[in-house]
Specification:
Length: 209
């Protein structure tokens, strides 16, 4: 089943590589860039939790429940000036092969990589894989109701807000969070795809959004 097959997705700015245990040290370095793991409304693993989180994601991948990626910023034209660098993690998760649906989630990026176009291209690569390679009929994106910045970013992708799952998950600090659910359907994908490409073109031309 193609849903279960690890794959490398490469663009101009980023490459999404299958997560590996050897990524541990680079991921710890990325997580400490801005201390994103300290944010209360995220599930970014801290340095001491990174090994366990990598093992958890790989175990889910082994069971066919997740496709975990390491996000690598590319060097050269359009990429990072200092060569390749690991900047975070992302996944295809909550995979439902029968109904051809999945969620893009468990995503985090180093602070220095934010608003650099890398997240936009990562989403373009993941959505393209979901709709064009896997034949998905819909892709979900979810975030904490408190995370207004993440909601705005998801809406800029062109996703539609489906609603709020109240008291949906218990966070590591014990907070019971409400989860906002967004989705993009297959008929909507061409417009979303063109919008993401246009954003990347504007960024490459030096325009600000």
């Amino acid at each position: 089943m193609p849903f279960l097959t690890p794959v490398t997705l490469r663009g101009d700015l980023v490459e999404l590589r299958p997560l590996a245990t050897s990524d541990h040290d680079a991921l710890v370095h990325a997580a400490t860039d801005g201390d994103v793991w300290r944010l209360p409304y995220t599930r970014v693993p801290g340095p001491e939790q990174m090994a366990a989180e990598i093992a958890r994601r790989l175990a889910l991948a082994e069971r066919g429940e997740m496709l975990p990626f390491t996000t690598v910023r590319l060097g050269g034209p359009g990429g990072g000036p200092d060569g390749e660098a690991v900047i975070g993690m992302t996944t295809c998760c909550n995979v439902d092969a029968t109904h051809r649906r999945l969620e893009i989630g468990y995503t985090w990026n180093a602070v220095s990589a934010q608003r650099s176009g890398t997240n936009t291209e990562s989403k373009l690569l993941l959505l393209g894989h979901a709709f064009e390679a896997l034949g998905c009929i819909a892709v979900e994106l979810r975030t904490d109701l408190r995370n207004v910045r993440s909601q705005a970013a998801i809406e800029r992708l062109g996703a539609q807000r489906d609603g709020v799952l109240r008291h949906h998950a218990v966070m590591p600090d014990g907070y019971v969070r409400d989860t906002v659910v967004y989705s993009i359907t297959a008929p909507e994908w061409p417009v979303v795809r063109d919008g993401l490409r246009a954003r990347l073109d504007r960024a490459a031309a030096g325009s600000t959004e």
